[in-house]
User: What shape does this take?
Amino acid sequence: MRFIDLTLPLYDYMPVGSVWAWDVPFQTQPITTDNHGYVLHMITMHSETGTRLMIRAMQDPNAPKVDEIPLEKIVLRDTAIVDAPCGMGGMIAREDMEKAFKGVQLERGDAIIIRTGWGDDERWVKLGDDYARKTPFVSKEAAEKLVEIMKKNGSDLVGSDVATWGRGDKYQLPEWASKPAWERVPFPSYQAKRYLASYTKQKAYEDFQSPHILNSADIMYIGAMCNLGAIKKNRVKLIVLPMKLKGMRGASCRVIAIEE
Assistant: This one.
């Protein structure tokens, strides 16, 4: 039995959680030090920093929240690995998604991992914020095809090593995320609040189309997984452990694959 950690490490100003207008960069500040005999830290972050689980509740206030997800839906799930190679700035189109699933033997109810290769080789360290800004992403049409495949198979959980399932190319990327870090004053700054006040639901859905498709289909999806290249088999058991945040509609999580 082999355990593979598929989780981005959380560290100060890591890129996944520092780019978009709603992001709050992960930061630590010492509370006590070795001079006190032990060390404690204050941590600031937003609810979906790094590797994260996203659910229907993001858009539906009546859907179960992250602390209400039955454990059998996220622990030791039989999971199929689906390869859809995609590099910097790329987009997974519908035909790419169709091609990726050819020859994949799905079992009823499988969770699915879409492996692009983006999350390998600690690329997030080498690229900094560009890891999130130039991530490959899943197009609306590819997401629709994915939902079609998953619904037909009775599947409700999918993960990928894309930093974000959508990429905000129309509004957020040029208007906010493309700026230097020192000009993206993070939430709860006046600048971030003003930008988000003008960032309507329509703009958000145009920018991040595939998340909307998955949310609407009641499919749980994981973003910013890493080390998927370390998986050698085409099937694993998957453990997804989101932070048990009361009433939250998504959460950072630890994700582990088990090869048997």
Q: What stands out?
A: The mean pLDDT is 97. Residues 80 and 106 are 7 Å apart (CA to CA). The radius of gyration is 18 Å.
